[in-house]
Fold:
Amino acid sequence: MAKPSEKKTIEIPADYVTLVSGDGEVKVIHRSAAYVSGALRRMLNPRNGFAEAVSKRATLENINGMVLEKVCEYFYYNEKYKSVKDVPDFDIPAELCLELLLAADYLNS
Structure:
């Protein structure tokens, strides 16, 4: 039986990564979606030698869970429509605009 102080770790497939917000929200997304972000691409690329590449986990202290959720939606949206000419609008709630702009700048997206 596991002790209460021991954390369970869940093995995720190699083509997925874990993103953790500053407030502890955890999102597991496809590596290719995370690579939409230049910062995450560099962090998670094994050739760059960052700890995030080994653990397949990036903690984003400056981004809260609600913003991280929308960022992850955008990553998948970007992947889905990257080679399409008539791209539908991506819905951004007005109350998240400033925080999403700051997150995009931080993530180099």
